[in-house]
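hiii, so i know i said id send this last week but things got crazy w the move. better late than never?? heres the sequnce for the chain we talked about at the cafe, plus the structure i predicted for it. fair warning i was half asleep when i ran it
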Amino acid sequence: MTLAAAAPPYEGHDGEDVLDMWICRFGPSEPGGWGPHRHRQHQIAWVSEGLTTAVVEGRSWVLPPTRALFIPAHAVHDTTNRPPAALHCLYVWPRACPLGWTAPTVIGVGPLLRELLLALSGPDLQRVEDSARSLFFGLVGTVSDRGVEVPMPTDRRARVVAETLSARPADPRSLDEWAPALGTSVSTLRRAFSDTGMTFTDWRTQVRLRAALPLLADGVPVAAVARRVGYASLNGFVDAFRRHFGHTPAAHFRP
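okay and structure toks below
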């Protein structure tokens, strides 16, 4: 008999039952990757420097300092930091949260919200007082993009394509080239990628943008980034980046 997998654990904090909202900071030496877990509270994950990858219920987002992610209570998630990231995790009980969000939601972090988060964070768990909580939620606003989310296809043949391109985003092969190598048809692969909610072309763009973010964060010149993630021209990369994020690569890490 096959045993059901154990549900990911709930993680708690000392004193959480008497707090409405609090924030924890994990320094640049902390890589994260604690494993799938849950909280009874909503969580907002944000890095003040570097990058973090948040995986929530099987969906992933790459987040720079200009983005945070709202993670609803009880959602199974994990975060992995790319050193020297500085991760700030804000927790709020649903009863004290004015947001009606029930799904992971990307939050734009502008200069004022950034300074508030930095002021609230300390080396240990810090209580967020009512006045700061009101100010925080008054500043929160969603952004038009969803971060960089790359859902994986479930079809085993399409998954070979997806895993290869995730590892080597500059691979130029089209579905016309992949299909005979995998013993399937182009229409089957196209349909499998459509099941992720996007076309193969759009899916590949997401993979390339995801691969570009760590390079940009490291200060690699934009033209070199474009080449390394598979764009034949700088303009093509910048146009794809602007269409998705609403601004140029150079602006992406500016608060």
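btw The mean pLDDT is 90. thought thatd interest u
miss u guys!!
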